[in-house]
Amino acid sequence: MKVYYKTLRDLPREELFAPGHRMCAGCGAAIAMRWITKVVGPNAVIANATGCVEVTTTPYPETAWMHPYIHVAFENSAAVASGVEAAIKTLRRKGLWDAGDTKVVVIAGDGGTYDIGLQSLSGMLERRHGVLYILYDNEAYMNTGIQRSGSTPKYAWTTTTPVGAAVRGKIQWKKDIMGIVMAHRVPYAATASISHILDMANKIKTALEYTTEGPTFLHIFAPCVPGWRYPENKTVEVARLAVETGYFPLYEWDHGKLRLNPPSNSHIDKTKRKPLKEFLKLQGRFAHLTEEEIAELEKELDAYWQYLAKLQTL
Amino acid sequence: MQIQKTRKIEALTSNYAVAYAVKAADVDVIAVYPITPQTTIVEKLSEFVANGELNAELIHVESEHSALSAVVGASAAGARVFTATSSQGLELAHEVLHIASGMRLPIVMAVPTRAVSAPISIHNDYGDVMNARDVGWVIYIAASAQEVYDTVIQAYRLAERALLPVIVAYDGFLMSHTVEPVELNDEEEVRKFLPRTPRPYTLNPRRPVTMGPLTSPDWYYEFKYQQVLALQEAYKIAKDVDAEYSRAFGRGYGVVESYRMEDADYAIVTYGGAAYGNAKAAADLARERGIAAGVVRIRLYRPFPTADVLKAISGVKALAVLDRAIMFGGPAEGPLYRDLAAAMYMSGVDKPAVNVIHGIGQRTMYVEDLYKIYTMLREGPRKEVVFMGVRI
Q1: d(Cα A120, Cα A118) in Å, to the nearest integer?
Q2: What is the pLDDT, as a whole number, of residue A2?
Q3: For a 10 Å CB count at each end of chain B, is N or C smaller?
Q4: pLDDT surpassing 70 at residue A100
């Protein structure tokens, strides 16, 4: 990534995400929205998928959005953004667009990206629209009341993967959405966490600028207070532990090269990572886990890191 | 406006007629996805763009759901947009049909109609567009390639004036793939007829708005009622646009077309090219055989042209509604019949009216079949729906 902001003092001051929205106290996605809108700047159109962010920020006749903003449905934000981008392109060509170099940004949750929106995302990436697609990942369908998604991690409690005598939380592993996006050979894709603001802001800006070449993608880790069952003052701590334990590595895929970013760049060496348990133990959704189950998750995490280490050598 | 002087006649299918009209309308963004029998529209448009004859962005979407979603996005950003689909594609896009009208976007979509699965059929009936009849779109059903061409141009003027999306439907295969002579307008004249007028709200960073918000029970109903009013208003706008088009280009159709209805005792009321053409031939035959027969064709299906259709049938003793779609389980299976029955009842018109279903999955509708409808009407009232042409 290009470093646009070296210190917190360099970050944009202008607020473009208005207060008064209905997001939960301690909402990880709200932190992401504030920094996305600041870094993207005012000359952009936001296309938002149905989800927590959409319902909490647009209660008619109020809105938290100072950008031109459109919400259409759950599964099609990438298609909507494709249309917006194509419209701006043609209207500029015909001299009918008066706002200059306007960027197009998608904001969608994990349900709208991993599951129901995957097809339209794939289409948008394949067609190489100049759109920045931002996934805020809270690892379940939180808006409808905490149902499992393709992003929910194994063994996590949700209302559709309850912990019972026969089944203990989600049965399957979390889907590798970054792998799917990278397979579309996009110019730039990166992970970021709301706990690492400078890294996140630089990645947002880098991804935005690369849209002149084609689609770019950001996977932002955004903890959820009611869904993950932790106290509302622990959101940043939970997100930071996700990075420090190696559960959510910070990396970027820049024109076919994978690069791990600090602090994840030291985490291929397992001893540099905090124990996974430190991330799990803060959250009620993992409260039922046995030592054996935690060991299984750790083993899978080790395998994932070996995969990342190999990718980095390509 | 003067009637144009330069006239150019081409041999075109209805699908190609759509493509020529879209080109003349200087459309900005087109979502392209293949489905039979729509495909040749987007093929032709792709040719126009490839040859530099049309300055538009093609979005080669991965589904019809995305096709309509993409033109919703493009239209919201202020572009003039087009897409086309049929049958399963229209069903897949159905969710977005409601959203396009709810967001009051002037989208124009061509629908060469096709039967809906299962079993799968690529052939023609109106089962697809009839499933989309109550979603807040204006719906035209054209009956010739010339009318298809003219209606697409009218559709843009109506859409942009009423702020409503418009479907231009016509017979799949029977029209979409049938070549007819079509008089093409001078493209500069079309562009004068379709001036670029700024819309009150579009996605533009200089004038930010939030589109597609969340509404509570305090607001949702008002949004929906505004759509009711907009559709009602579109009835008059459609008539105005047709009259304006007629003045500019010398061709007009009205919202309801009548054939030999001046002194008719019995009428077939129907829609689409094949049903109308064969019903006209059947009326001629009936008149040769001593029955005062006529035909009424619904050209503007939504908003429903109640006043015009009731006026058209005011002199008849009895009528048959010939439907080319089955809507299962209702009091009658024909969608137009239900509309017309409600329109008659609401206006206190009490005449014998029978519902005839025919041409399902492109089952051949013989002129003799439709002639029998007239003899049936003469015999007296019938209560049950007549499924004509089916093997029982």
Answers
A1: 6
A2: 92
A3: C
A4: yes
Contacts of B202 in chain A (CB under 8 A): 68
Strands (DSSP E) contained in chain A are 44-48, 69-71, 103-109, 132-137, 188-193, 216-221, 251-254, 257-260
* Residue whose token pair is 């200059």: A100
Give Cβ neighbours of residue B54 (< 8 Å, ≥ 6 apart).
Answer: B22, B23, B26, B27, B45, B48
Query: Which chain B residue shows the shortest CA-CA distance from A41?
Result: B205
| Neighboring chain B residues of A133 at a CB cutoff of 8 Å | none
| pLDDT tens-place string over residues B123-158 | 999 999 999 999 999 999 999 999 999 999 999 999
The beta-carbon neighbor of A102 closest among B95, B205, B210 is B205
Residue B168 · residue B152 · CB < 8 Å: yes
CA B65 – CA B201 distance, rounded (Å)? 24
Backbone angles phi, psi at B30, to 5 degrees: -130, 125
Chain B CB contacts of A73 under 8 Å are 69, 95-96, 99
Architecture of domain B8-249: 3-Layer(aba) Sandwich (3.40)
Share of chain A above pLDDT 70, in %: 100
Minimum distance, in Å, between the CA of residue A45 and any CA atom of chain B: 7
Q: Would you say B209 and A90 are in contact if contact means Cβ atoms under 8 Å apart?
A: no
CA distance B69 to chain A (A): 5
Encoded amino acid at B331, one letter: P
In chain B, the residue whose alpha carbon lies closest to the alpha carbon of A48 is: B212
Q: What is the pLDDT of residue A253?
A: 98
By Cβ distance, the residue of A79, A83, A127 closest to B29 is: A83
pLDDT value at position B199?
93
The answer to whether the beta carbons of residues B152 and B188 sit under 8 Å apart is no
State the span(s) of chain B assigned CATH 3.40.50.970. Answer: 8-249
Pick the CATH number of A8-313 from 3.40.50.2000, 3.40.50.970, 1.10.760.10, 3.40.50.920: 3.40.50.970
Residue B5 has pLDDT above 80, yes or no: no
**Alpha-carbon distances, residue B254 vs A184, A305, B236, B296, B387 (angstroms):** 51, 69, 11, 12, 30
Name residue A219's beta-bridge partners: A135, A191
CA atoms within 13 A on the CB side of B375: 11
Question: Any chain A CB within 8 A of the CB of B207?
Answer: yes
Q: Is residue B278 scored above 90 in pLDDT?
A: yes
Q: Architecture of domain B256-387 in CATH?
A: 3-Layer(aba) Sandwich (3.40)
pLDDT at residue B2, rounded to an integer: 54
Q: Are A79 and B61 in contact (CB under 8 A)?
A: yes
Task: Report yes or no: B73 at the A interface, CB cutoff 8 Å.
Answer: yes
- Minimum-distance CB partner of B74 among A68, A84, A93: A84
At B7 the pLDDT is 76
Q: What is the mean pLDDT of chain B?
A: 97
Query: In this predicted model, what pLDDT tens digit does every residue of B25-58 receive, in sequence order?
Result: 999 999 999 999 999 999 999 999 999 999 999 9
Which position has the token pair 């079309």? B190
Q: What's the rounded Cα separation, in Å, for the pair B110 and B147? A: 13
- Would you state the structure tokens that stand for residue A152, as one six-digit string? 């929910």
